Amino acid sequence: QVQVVESGGGLVQAGGSLRLSCATSGRAFSRYSVGWFRQAPGKEREFVAAVDWSGRTTLYADSVKGRFTMSRDNAKNTVHLQMNSLKAEDTAVYYCAASMSISPMYGPNEYCCWGQGTQVTVSS
Predict the structure, then answer these.
(1) 3-state secondary structure 1-34
(2) Tens of pLDDT along 59-75?
(3) Which residue of 43, 49, 60, 91 shows the fewest CB atoms closer than 10 Å?
């Protein structure tokens, strides 16, 4: 399986930007699709974005479309989530997860391997 570790979270003012990174280890990372999810206090974990094994196909939640961009570098076993125009409602713990599906997936149950999460706080 793939191990994942997130980084890059922090405190930012509304309208600002953050770049989250997901470092992975384990075999055949390039065969996995990768997703970002987030969970705010008192709310369920929700899908944010996902990328297929090649990096050519991405999916985004409507709430982040046009503001967030996900990318991957298979040579470096890393995935990034560039978050621009951040809003207070983006505040959450962000999780990176890997799926054995080569296609990007919306559902958290499709993902086998989760990181510990990184906190993103957007002040209004």
Answers:
(1) CCEEEEECCEEEECCCCEEEEEEEECCCHHHCEE
(2) 999 999 999 999 999 99
(3) 43
